[in-house]
Amino acid sequence: MMRCLRLLFGCCLCLISGAQNAYRRVAIPEQAYFAEAFDGALDRNWVLSKAVKDEQLQLLQYNGQWVIEDSREQRLQGNRGLVLKSPGKHHAISAYLRNVYHFTDKPLCLQYEVFFQKVVDCGGAYIKLLAHSDDLRLSQFSDATPYSIMFGPDKCGSSHKIHFIFRRRDPVTGTYEEKHARQPEIDLTDYFTDRRPHLYTLNVYPDNTFEILVDLTLINKGSLLKDMDSPVTSPYETQEHADRRLDKPFTMSPVSAVGFELLSLTGDVMFDNILVSDSLEVARRWTEDTWGQRKTPGLIEKLLIATVKRPWLWGVYVVTVGLPIILFISLMWPDKRFGPPDQDYYYKKTDEPQADRHQSREEPVTRDEVVNQTAVEADSRAVRRVVRNTDVTS
What we know:
With 394 residues, this protein is of the alpha+beta class. The radius of gyration is 38 Å and the shape is elongated. The chain contains 7 helices and 20 strands. The chain folds into 2 domains: 1-19 and 310-394, no CATH class; 25-296, Jelly Rolls (Sandwich), CATH 2.60.120.200. Residues 344-373 are annotated as: Disordered.
């Protein structure tokens, strides 16, 4: 029994050690407009907002702390990310793209990872693509800074959302308006509560369609023209106005920076592996190099990973899984009485009395013993013949 327990425990250790991968640094693709894996320190490309909420007192509007830290994820040891640290405070940080992205004839591929390392009560984790302009100053990044796209998860109370909002200038009125994609119909709760990183991907195409994926699974898609809370083309406007719009909402304001401008009541929200590209192939390779380092766990690996934070589950596993296996092995263990007939420990079932001493086949047999055994058998046969003859005569 103890041998079985040790064997089972050893197998479990092998499985759980295999479930943990060592993080490998990734190469930044030259074709990307922006790519950040946060493998090193927070460099000067990232600018903390110095916007103030009181000019006279010089009180900062964004006083939340940002740091680069190791992830608490058990499956990818050594991975680092950008962490929003201060609960209940405003945070803002941004970085310029390598080149200005223009919405022309190529798609926009935006993706990044979010890891709620603690149970999130209320807070956003969305990213903004800041609109290009000559007066854009990242040190003054705030909620008033114009953006072209806002995308990502957001929770407040029992409401769980994945935002996709694009902002564009209406050619008819000349004003800027925000268009919100309708929320997917699936339940999004697990993405905020399961304490695992998730990959959020937005693809927007020149034909005015979009796709939203989480962990490479499509959860929402639609048209920029129709599948918005307020459609781009109003059914009440004149045909002249509709023609002036040219029905091309994809042609938004160019983008020159990415940024996070957030308020979260929960700290330790991690962001990682940000990509802005106009190539689906570049995005695919980047995903393989980053998110692909996490192998999808099977059922057994998921059960073993769960014991890291809940050690008491070991007892449940032993009772529900280990004990039946041990009992099965114990019952099926080979019994010497029923071994192969050509082995020493084989005993043929018989009603005749067995000798107390079993002679080893390897023990030498003398000539006298053979003669004596032959004589005994001959006498036994003679006695049986006499008995039979007596029975016949009588």
